[in-house]
């Protein structure tokens, strides 16, 4: 019995199969099972015949095992086709099979000549097993090859992560942009907003340090100890070092990261500074607000210490009369001109303007001299024109150096305006540092070729914490599931509904500024003192509605701090959709809604973290560092 050809016939019987599985000296190269007309696979006499072809040197041997139906008698034969053309058939009969092993034999224990050991039932089973194993291995190898090809193809067509440019405009009021106020000239950002996605309901934190902390970490500030006011220059603390910041995560996937502008997240120890927190470079101040020409920064509302603040990495930028905004934009253009576009870019521009300090180069103020405006208003409108020009210079550089088509530009205020002193949040209520809408609802838009929907006005809720997770998603990074931020990319780029239905404005349980605010759906609840900057100012200087032309007053009174303790049992309830200006307190009308929102606040309170160290330490006084605000004292 031998395979007659490729058709697999055995002794001319086409119903018998020939399975070719192995090749090699001393190994089975075929396993054949007779398949007769019986559907059960047995031969005509009720027995089952299995053959194995064995190649030993130049001899081809066919070993067969015939199992009688009663499983008591087994006949094995070996036919040998020698290289000289002769054929030998040897046969041995085994009886009394027990557990598949022969215990007696008609020929005793005589060995079959040239068989390389007895071909036992175990050997045949091993041959069958090896055949199956080889087939599986071959299939596995083919699958690996196919998968490798698929991976290569996908890697070639994998979307390239975008360059991301984030612009935070300092203290930008709701009424300080052209699309909300026709008296303000901001043609560049007007056009970018109209070509991209303009947000009507973007929220940030009431002050600049907490907003930056939320963007950098993806957590609400009350969960990381950053809920109290902002970092003052002599505080011996900063954004907690155990937190991994956004630029650190982006560096891990190949992003080149740059920070230009004010840092304001801690500097008393070098470990708090930008180049130790994930940024490849930093150029700008380490503290908060400062003058734009002399680059001077003061501590706290008491202004007990003043010093120079301008850093390039770990080195001081010497006194320079050039207007600060010019210097920052010039550095950004340099970064863009030298960027190797193969690597994705994360650039964060924390602007020094509009800000709280009314300074601007004369040419911008002079553009408004023909109008019936007071000097402060002319200067502030000039600052807004400079801000617009700065954004235009940056976008032009992105285009000039071939980066624009791969860039997502994100623009937003870091908090509302210092109303009736600098900008205006009209018609929204309140000033920077409060829990009213004027402090936390800011102008914002995104622009870039990555948007699937362009020229769109979004009325969906977005919070600054969402940008952390959304940027990670765009970069292909899996975010910590515990983050407060939500991936908003589908809502932003495709115009889908926002998954966000709730915003926590802040929770602070400090003894004299205890307050909290939350929005769920259309309703907003404020409890406690809504002014987070107490005692730097009186509450009646921050909770009103202020237009740009209103008579200004000094919000920070030097060392003459307020000594009047504000009431802590105040409750406000607004339907913020119907009453965005917060003019109608409905707390007494809907106590059940107040209770419901209060319960939600209490649930969030379970995650509150104690405020970071707010101790003021004169070890950081600029006089100890040659007049500079410098790290190295905590």
What would a concise description of this structure say?
By secondary structure, the chain is of the alpha+beta class. The protein is built from eleven helices and 24 strands. The radius of gyration is 40 Å and the shape is globular.
What does the model show?
- With 634 residues, the chain is of the alpha+beta class.
- It folds into 2 domains: 17-136; 166-625, Alkaline Phosphatase, subunit A, CATH 3.40.720.10.
- Helices cover 23% and strands 23% of the residues.
- The model is unreliable at 1-32, 35-44, 53-60 and 68-117 (pLDDT under 50).
Percentage of residues in helical conformation:
10-25%
The DSSP helix count reads 11
Strand content: 15-25%
Low-pLDDT ranges: 1-32, 35-44, 53-60, 68-117
Q: Could you please say which CATH topology of the largest domain applies here?
A: Alkaline Phosphatase, subunit A
What best-fitting shape do the alpha-carbon axes yield?
globular
Termini, distance in Å?
Answer: 92 Å
Coarse structural class: alpha+beta
The total beta strand count reads 24
CATH architecture of the largest domain: 3-Layer(aba) Sandwich
Mean pLDDT: 82
Radius of gyration: 40 Å
How many domains make up the coordinates?
2
Q: Quick one: biggest sheet?
A: 11 strands, mixed
Name given to the CATH homologous superfamily of the largest domain: Alkaline Phosphatase, subunit A
CATH class category of the largest domain: Alpha Beta
For the structure shown, list the relevant keywords.
634 residues; alpha+beta; Alkaline Phosphatase, subunit A; 2 domains; 11-stranded mixed β-sheet; 7-stranded antiparallel β-sheet; 11 helices; 23% helix; disordered N terminus
């Amino acid at each position: 019995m031998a395979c007659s050809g490729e058709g697999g016939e055995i002794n001319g019987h086409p119903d018998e199969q020939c399975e070719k599985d192995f090749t090699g000296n001393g190994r089975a190269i075929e396993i054949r099972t007779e398949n007769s007309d019986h559907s059960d696979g047995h031969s005509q006499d009720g027995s089952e015949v299995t053959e194995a072809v064995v190649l030993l040197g130049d001899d081809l041997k066919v070993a067969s095992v015939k199992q009688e139906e009663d499983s008591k008698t087994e006949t094995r034969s070996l036919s040998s086709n020698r290289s000289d053309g002769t054929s030998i058939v040897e046969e041995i009969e085994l009886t009394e099979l027990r557990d598949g092993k022969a215990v007696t034999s008609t020929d005793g224990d005589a060995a079959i000549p040239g068989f390389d050991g007895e071909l036992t039932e175990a050997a045949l089973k091993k041959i069958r097993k090896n055949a199956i194993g080889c087939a599986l291995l071959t299939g596995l190898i083919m699958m690996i090859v196919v998968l490798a090809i698929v991976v290569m193809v996908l890697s070639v067509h994998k979307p390239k992560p975008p360059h991301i440019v984030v612009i935070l405009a300092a203290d930008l009021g709701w009424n300080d942009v052209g699309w909300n106020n026709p008296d303000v000239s901001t043609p560049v950002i007007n056009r970018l907003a109209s070509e991209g996605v303009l947000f009507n309901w973007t929220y940030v934190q009431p002050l600049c340090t907490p907003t930056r902390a939320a963007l950098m970490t993806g957590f609400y500030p009350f969960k990381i100890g950053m809920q109290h006011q902002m970092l003052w220059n002599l505080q011996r603390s900063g954004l907690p070092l155990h937190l991994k910041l956004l630029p650190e995560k982006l560096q891990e996937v190949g992003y080149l990261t740059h920070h230009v502008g004010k840092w304001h997240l801690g500097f008393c120890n070098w470990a708090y500074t930008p180049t130790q927190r994930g940024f490849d470079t930093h150029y700008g101040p380490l503290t908060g607000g400062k003058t734009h020409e002399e680059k001077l920064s003061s501590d706290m509302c008491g202004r007990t210490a003043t010093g120079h603040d301008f850093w390039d990495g770990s080195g001081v930028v010497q006194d320079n009369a050039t207007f600060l905004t010019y210097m920052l934009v010039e550095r950004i253009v340099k970064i863009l001109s030298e960027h190797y576009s193969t690597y994705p870019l994360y650039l964060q521009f924390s602007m020094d303007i509009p800000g709280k300090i009314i300074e601007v180069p004369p040419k911008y103020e002079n553009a408004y001299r023909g109008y019936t405006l007071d000097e402060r208003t002319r200067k502030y409108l000039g600052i807004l024109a400079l801000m617009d020009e700065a954004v235009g210079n940056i976008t032009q550089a992105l285009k000039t150096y071939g980066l624009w088509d791969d860039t997502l530009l994100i623009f937003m205020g870091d908090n509302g305006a210092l109303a009736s002193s600098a900008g205006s949040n009209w018609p929204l209520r309140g000033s920077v540092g409060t829990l009213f809408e004027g402090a936390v609802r800011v102008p914002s838009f995104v622009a870039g070729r990555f948007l699937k929907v362009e020229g769109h006005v979004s009325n969906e809720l977005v919070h600054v914490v969402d940008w952390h997770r959304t940027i990670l998603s765009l970069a292909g990074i899996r975010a910590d599931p515990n983050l407060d931020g939500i991936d908003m990319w589908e809502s932003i780029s495709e115009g889908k509904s926002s998954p966000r239905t709730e915003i926590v404005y802040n929770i602070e349980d400090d003894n004299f500024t205890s307050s909290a605010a939350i929005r769920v759906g259309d309703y907003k609840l404020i409890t406690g003192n809504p002014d987070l900057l107490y005692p730097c100012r009186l509450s009646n200087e921050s909770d009103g509605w202020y237009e740009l032309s209103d008579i200004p007053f000094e919000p920070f009174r030097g060392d003459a701090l307020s000594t009047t303790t504000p009431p802590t049992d105040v409750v406000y309830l607004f339907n913020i959709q119907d009453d965005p200006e917060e003019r109608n307190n409905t707390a007494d009308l809907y106590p059940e809604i107040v209770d419901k929102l209060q319960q939600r606040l209490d649930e969030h309170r379970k995650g509150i973290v104690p405020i970071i160290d707010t101790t003021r330490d004169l070890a950081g006084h600029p006089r100890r560092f040659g007049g500079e605000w410098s790290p190295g004292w905590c």
